[in-house]
Design goal:
The chain has 138 residues and is mainly α. It has a single domain, classed as Large-conductance mechanosensitive channel, MscL, domain 1 (Non-ribosomal Peptide Synthetase Peptidyl Carrier Protein, Chain A), CATH 1.10.1200. The protein is 70% helix and 5% strand. The chain has helices spanning 2-11, 14-48, 75-108, 118-135, and strands at residues 59-62, 71-73. A two-stranded antiparallel sheet has the order 1-2. β1 (59-62) and β2 (71-73) form a beta hairpin. α2 (14-48) packs across α3 (75-108). It starts with a helix and ends with a helix. This is Large-conductance mechanosensitive channel.
Length: 138
């Protein structure tokens, strides 16, 4: 029973739940980025380089023979994956940069000076009384 209760304590910790949510959102974000790259970014790039579709770029290493499929080196899909990665990495960089800027602004924001303790107030009053007594002409 100890292992089950330990697992339950681990599984419901905030960090584990946050990580699971992050992974799910990351997977969904990955689909969005793949669509953005494949459907929005790559067509103009392909047009600029002569109408080439990166996904179709490949080298046939061995032609198909009967029921045996061809051996193809699909380097265009690799180029597509690298571009996907670069866009995701840049988006994450920009997000982290924005968060760090907000943290710096929060740290720079002036905080109120700490209020003096009762002892400090009392000592200040005693100092002022002594100074007033010493300043009186005798």
């Amino acid at each position: 029973m100890g292992v089950i209760s330990e697992f339950k304590a681990f599984a419901v910790k905030g960090n584990v739940v946050d990580m699971a949510v992050g992974i799910i959102i990351g997977a969904a974000f990955g689909k969005i980025v793949s669509s953005f790259v494949g459907d929005v970014v790559m067509p103009p790039i392909g047009l600029l380089i002569g109408g080439v579709d990166f996904a179709d770029l490949a080298v046939t290493l061995k032609a198909a023979q009967g029921d045996v499929p061809a051996v193809v080196l699909a380097y265009g899909k690799f180029i597509q994956s690298v571009i996907d990665f670069l866009i995701v990495a840049f988006a994450i960089f920009m997000g982290v940069k924005a968060i760090n800027r907000l943290k710096r602004e929060e740290a720079v924001a002036p905080s109120l000076p700490p209020t003096p303790s009762k002892e400090e107030v009392l000592l200040g009053e005693i100092r002022d009384l002594l100074k007033a007594q010493n300043d009186k002409p005798q």
